[in-house]
Amino acid sequence: MMEEYKFPPKDFINREMSFLQFNYRVLEEAKDKNNPLFERVKFAAIVISNLDEFYMIRYGTLSDQVHAKIYKRDPSGRTPKEQLIEINKLTRKMLKDLYDLMNTDILKELSDAKIEFIKPENLSEEELAYIDNLFINNIYPVITPMVIDSSRPFPLISSETLNIAVLLEDKESLEKHHIGTIQVPSVLDRYYYLPRKDTKSKHFIFLEDIIKLKLKDLFNSFDVLNYSCYRISRNADLEYDEEEAEDLMEVIRETIKLRKWGNVIKLEVEEVISPELLEYLMEEFEIQEYNVFRINGPLNLDFLHKLNKLAGYEHLKFKEIVPLPIPELISHEDIFLDIAHKDVVLHHPYDSFASVIKLIKQAAADPQVLAIKQTLYRVSGNSPIVRTLAEAAENGKQVTVLVELKARFDEENNISWALRLEKAGCHVIYGVVGLKTHCKMLLIVRRENNEIKRYFHVGTGNYNDITAKLYTDVSLLSCNGELAKDISDIFNKLSGQYKYERMRLATLAPEDMRNKFNDLIDQERANAKNGKKGLIIAKMNSLVDRKIIERLYDASNDGVEIQLIIRGICCLRPGIKGLSENIQVRSIVGRFLEHSRIFYFYNNGNEDTFIGSADWMERNLNNRIELLIPILNAEGKHKLKNILDYNLKDNVKSRILHANGTYHKINTKDEPFNCQEEFIIRTRKKFEKYKKRTMKQSLSRG
Length: 702
Known about the structure:
Methane Monooxygenase Hydroxylase, Chain G, domain 1, eight-stranded mixed β-sheet
């Protein structure tokens, strides 16, 4: 029986279709010739990596529901089976469009830029000799060709690895066919440089093509009839019982191992594969035809990311930006003095994340600092923050770190960091049973003039120095007493059974955040009903939560103007008369991944402005520990409002969502306005103005 909803299914966009529409927007960036060639290539690679994760998690979950004979419909009215069919249909079209783009425009433009991937049949005798030597010395020692028979069963194939399947015929018994398989080693380069005389071009050949050239030598007891690269995706949406777990880390370690055995839910093969070889693979992986994707080109475009590292092609990339220090945080050598002076809002990657690292480093070495507390969700592989926290503990600070072990696909990395922090003397918490800790916060306790003072940092993004250069996020540095007490209470809640009476200024999920957003939306509804201005502007990654969507529909009908800036999934249908005619939704896909979460409510001119870690999704509001904080000072509010205004003004990278679920670029005769590029220019101008001012002050003092 279908669950009763306030609004009918036609008023909701399917979540999975919305994600695939987002991936199409990424594909559009690969097609956009206004982007530098290497950036277009990078967007093409992102399309594939997005699909990989989507199939392993979302498609895997729906597959489990189908196998469990679950027929419950989603808010858009689709059963799990119906969603799987639509996903595969749209994915098939997306892959065709992507590889059509690769095989025409992109490969041609790479060739024009003197970069060519040579096919085996086009190799010269000299190059074949070079490859022979390369294969014997560098590749052959690493690969393991396997023939499948009664004593050698088909090996375990890991998700997303590249492999070659080979159809073999026994030379002694011509009617007897065998199957061979070779994993293309991920520890080797995916493509190799081919020295070629009398040319200015750089020539490369794929590793799998080198191995294919040697198949007859590798399987010299057989005749090679057919071969094809293949790649599988396994269901990675595995659950574990936290309530019964005595050792959460050990349970998660075991779950990671089980991912290797997840059911195969997608099989990619080359178009040239023979029916017999494909039939064998389908039987081996227990997969049906509708989950097979024939690819007209190299499987797994992840290698395209590495093209960006080729020297001498800077003109084919975006001009590199250098995140700049924010003037408010370089007035003093002591960053605590700057934060004590006023609250500071940071906008990454334009404002340098180095300010946050500097704060932690100074706290680790400062004799006045007594304690440091921090949550870590996703950190980089060589995190300076983790190293500094370890140093702080070794320096005698009381260091408490919540490392969320359940951060999907980062579990192993986080376990490694957790053990390192423990070894250094930090108190490490492995998350909270039943909930993911997704809030991003740092608390520093310092003794000043024989009194305790708390400094804190709260952001919308992870404490990851690498993604801080690639994602747009906002954060707050402050020593506001009320907020600092709230954050202190939250850390006490995370580390034990501490119960707070109520938050002073902050809002926490899952306890209070849904109610907070409901109240803020209802406040605008009440004002609109009374003839006053009602305005909501919200920026986030995804809008999926049905109850929030229903409340926004009601607000629209009450006359509230609602502007939503949603990068990814949006299940709300905007612009429908009598339902959502006062709601506009836009998505911005550009050189940086839009990741900030900003919420603005006009509130009769008081302009309530918040930042937080949560999207408007059920998982965030119901099943995660998330944090929402108000921005209190006028300068911080103005900066966030300016970010929203720039996003709404963007007419280059914005796409507008239409009621039918499709997105279209803005057709306008106005001057082009790319908000990300404008932020780069604006930040640079502000910093140059600060440098000139300080230079004048220095000269006048001299």
